[in-house]
Amino acid sequence: EVQLVESGGGLVQPGGSLRLSCAASGFPFSSYAMSWVRQAPGKGLEWVSIIDSGGTTNYQDSVKGRFTISRDNAKNTLYLQMNSLKPEDTAVYYCAKRKAGTRDYDDWGQGTQVTVSS
Question: Distance (Å, rounded) from C-alpha 20 to C-alpha 91?
Answer without folding.
Answer: 13
